[in-house]
Amino acid sequence: MQSFTWYCPITREDYKKLPNEEEALEGLRKEKVSPGDYAFPFPDSPKDISSPEMAEKYRKGPVGLLTILPSTPPAMGKSLFLWFIFILIAGIFTAYVSGRSLGKGRSDWGYAWVPVFGPLIGGVLGAYGYYLLGFEPAFLIGLHSEMVEVPF
After folding, report:
1. CA–CA separation, 33 vs 38, rounded Å?
2. Model confidence at 7: pLDDT above 70
């Protein structure tokens, strides 16, 4: 299904070519940016997120995320193999946990809500704990009322 969505017309507009791509690539080569994920603008500490300097950087733009991959030709064989191994291990683990919790030959559908809502509840509690530790979820960065004027 995932490979089907790659060719689906809906996803063709997900990525766009940079204007002046060669200049942008030359600038990244000049800076010798190593492979990894980058966010820009990026604060030096969580306290700097709400500073006037960061607000000005967000207003001026551009704001974005950038993933730099190793400089090799694209090859999906290794990634697909690792994905298959991951799915296999996750399936075995899920079957083991389900078997241990439900018991042999037992089909108690009263328990069926746990595998559905358990991860959702865990995700919400984890995000809240992350927020309590002083970190701000990435999707909220730049949405403070003092940083962005909402038009409505």
Report:
1. 10
2. no
